[in-house]
Amino acid sequence: MALSVALQLYTVRDDMAADFAGTLAKVKAMGYEGVEFAGLFGHSAAEVKKMCEETGLTPISAHVPYRDILKDPRGVLSAYAKIGCKYVAIPYLIPEDRPGSEKFGEVIQNAKLIGAVARELGMVLLYHNHDFEFEKIDGKYALEVLYDTVPAELLQTELDTCWVNVGGEEPASYVRKYSGRAPVVHLKDFVGQKNENMYELIGIESEKKETAVPFEFRPVGYGCQNMPAIVKAAEDSDAVWLVVEQDRPSMGLTALECAAKSREYLKSIGH
User: Fold this and answer.
1) Would the pTM count as exceeding 0.90?
2) Domains of the chain as residue ranges with CATH
């Protein structure tokens, strides 16, 4: 059975800021069945729920900054539960919270706490990785330490297949590693190689350095990723949703055009 396909709305964040409802309608018209939020742009949970209902999009999930959740886990998660989101994801860790810092141990323990609150609300907590979780702790990837320490009933995976690749692992195989624990899989394509400038592309300042092979995000199916293999792995691992994400537009296209191109590609391979 073909997996459902959603768009991570961070992909079209400028369009969302300018016209929330209109952008949702455009996303639906492209053939996306669901959306994953990255901010509500001042709208209430009730307003967002209504817009999704009117547009016919399923609000599947939301990326909510870890420290924002931590301030008020029940209050923050309740808002997304009201919208109808089944999942909420920790999307990114600032340097102070990452593996190698003293705070990473706290992140792991707090994931248990947040996951328990999510479960009480009928939701599932996900963790969305980048490449820095592939730093090793006592011979094991930090990402694996996280998943081995926090039980599956409190934390599921949202593997970002671009960053898995950049982190040094083969994406399809890594999705299969978490079979049964990977309900949402991020499809993200790219060209180039790991370098010091990658995080500039997701809005994180760094000291720019010249690189022989520039890193660039691409629409799904237009980069170096073996997308048919990744999608098959997601199917085999009992995933429920494929989520398209492109942090920056490329190929001379707008963000919306990139999202449309990704959706057309997935239709061409049966999804």
Assistant:
1) yes
2) 4-268 (3.20.20.150)
